[in-house]
Amino acid sequence: MATATAAQARKAAIATVKRGQARAEVSALQTFVWVGKDKRGQSMKGEYSAKNMSLVKAELRRQGINPTTVKAKGKPLFGAAGKTISAREIAVFSRQISVMMQAGVPLVQGLDIIASGQANVRMKNMLVAIKNDIEGGSTLHEALAKFPVQFDELFCNLVKAGESAGVLDTVLDTVATYKENIEALKGKIKKAMFYPAIVLAVALIVSSILLIFVVPQFETVFKGFGADLPAFTQMIVNMSRFMTTYWWAALLIAGGVIGGFIFLYKRSPAFAHLCARAVLKLPVIGQILHQSAIARFARTLGVTFRAGVPLVEALDSVAGATGSPIYNNAVKRIREDVAVGHQLQLAMRQAQLFPNMVVQMVAIGEESGALDKMLFKVAEFYEQEVNNAVDALASLLEPFIMVIIGGMVGSMVVGMYLPIFKLGAVVG
């Protein structure tokens, strides 16, 4: 037992060292601007990333170009390191390398072509490092594994399965489609959450401006009436006084609540699980998140299973791809049940999260030997359901949000004019 633990520790240490070396290689690469002439005497210019100037000159001469000027490219004042590599960029890269492989372009050359067209410096350097690793004898999945933030375990496992089976181009095409579908699904979910959040934030900002700058002007006028203010008006005036005097405290409290929530969500699995379960119970948003998790589960499992990954290992990779702690834990339980010999459809039924239709489709797939096709059908159905639900939600939210904004602003306007109406009644 101690020997196995020591071996695992050594493997972990080696992996850490390799990741550090990969990051060091990326940071060591530098972009050079060159000017030269080809064999016909025609002037040429361009850029090339390498560790030093000598390698650039050697590469240019190898291509039949006589370099006259080679110098380091100047760094911009802002954003010199490049922006963070986004999931969408990884999806685009997946499609590009897939097209290159299917067109018969060698892997190293394809990576070089894709890297040269990158505007993001970090993305470009990462692709150059991957290309260099492959030229040094590494397989593609080994080179990708050195960048676990951009290429997760699922991505690397799929590439590894494609390399082992000799169908890397086909698997890369499947991975590219998978990444594009997942990113499109994420975009739909963000759209559903982003719109109401922004509108409510604007409503709060407008209300705060009214309380801080407008209500105090009315309060000055009310003081000249010499009469008690209506209770509703007095409440708004008290809120205005608090916001005018203690606005900084309101900001600190709001920041503290948001910061504390994020801290607990990231550090406490129990709290994250509680929040996820509460969100899933919301009327419309909860349904969208349920359908999204099922779609991700089905598509990810279908892709990994079609790539030739054993079902138990596939479920291991799928758990983190559902986007929900609730479904993550459920998939882990399903994996344990399948590992001891249970059928997938039975394990899914025991989880009590998947609709009967999904379980029945999986059962048919298992019996007919077409599990991957059935999973893709499930994924397509629920992705379409998410699209329809998001569109319906947007239509429902517009009048609902208008009512909220109108209620918040209108109540303040009514509160400010109540004393004037009261005074007019007394005078009349």
From TrEMBL:
It is found in: Cell inner membrane. It holds the Pfam family T2SSF. Its main location: membrane. InterPro entries: GspF/PilC (IPR003004), T2SS_GspF/T4SS_PilC_CS (IPR001992), T2SS_GspF_dom (IPR018076), T2SS_GspF_sf (IPR042094). GO terms for biological process: protein secretion by the type II secretion system. Residues 93-216, 297-419 form the Type II secretion system protein GspF domain. PROSITE patterns: T2SP_F. It comes from the Bacteria. The chain crosses the membrane at residues 194-215, 245-265, 400-420. GO terms for cellular component: plasma membrane. It is a multi-pass membrane protein. Keywords: Cell inner membrane, Cell membrane, Membrane, Transmembrane, Transmembrane helix, Transport. Belongs to the GSP F family. This is Type IV pilus assembly protein PilC. It comes from Tahibacter aquaticus.
